[in-house]
Amino acid sequence: MKASKSTMAVALAAALLIGALVITSVSVAKTRATLTNVRIGVSPYFEYQPWRIAHDLGLDKAQGLNLSFTNLNNTADGVVAAKRGDLDLVSTCHACSFAVFKSAPDFRNWMITNQFKGFIIVGRKGKTLSYADVVKKVGPA
User: Fold this and answer.
1) Angle, to 10 degrees, between the axis of helix 75-84 and the axis of helix 94-101?
2) Tens digits of per-residue pLDDT, 86-122?
């Protein structure tokens, strides 16, 4: 029995599709097996959220990482967890870390954002003093 050209085309397309799925599945399985797990303790501040965004977008996997998160209320709890081996990275700030350097001499701190060394006035228009008014009232910083 002779197969028609359309039947042959469908069979060839199906074979190519199955082959592509097998190759993709093997590649995904291999990628999952080679990901490095990184446990991160994050505080609720917005400047530490790029780690979560990277994870949600799959950017961690693209770099060979599998990020997982633990929510922290303060730096000290995160440093204790890191010293204990429960976390690999902890969100912190330079000023927050000074207190823990003595007890954790191998603790390393680097910034993913800048450290704002000033202040801003937040309030409602007409109900908040301007900077110049604050300086007049309390003196210069």
Assistant:
1) 50
2) 998 887 766 676 777 777 777 766 655 555 555 665 6
